[in-house]
Design brief:
147 residues; alpha+beta; Aspartate Aminotransferase, domain 1; two-stranded antiparallel ribbon; 8 strands; 36% helix; DUF1801 domain-containing protein; YdhG-like
Length: 147
Amino acid sequence: MAKYEPKTKPTEVSVEDFITAVPDPRRREEAIEINAMLRRVSGHEPKMWGPSIIGYGEYHYRYDSGHEGDAPRIGFSPRKAQLVLYLMGNYCDQQEEADALFAKLGKHSIGKSCLYIPRLANVDAAVLEQLVKISWDSMNKLYAPSS
């Protein structure tokens, strides 16, 4: 059986070029705002992961099944219908605090490890930044950053 090869890997594509190429002007401005927020919280320069995910930091994961790979600690993608934030850490050790913040965030929906925001103007930016920080801190507790 062939070894699993992840589709989402770091690329050499410029994050600035990717954001500049977002066709919808509102979504492009939202991407600029989210990029600034995630850079501020993480202290990391962004990099492209696959064709459409902007990630900050990275970690190596290994499942009990033997499947393993690398992924961004936090990230986002400015999709056509909504912004998607990848905040895996919000499902870790601070779930109660994250749930209280989600209740105050504004219009959004949640997937397994994704936060979907149809329009950035309809959420509370300060609450969103707190959620990003919880996720970042939780990921750093679970997966110690490499120097």
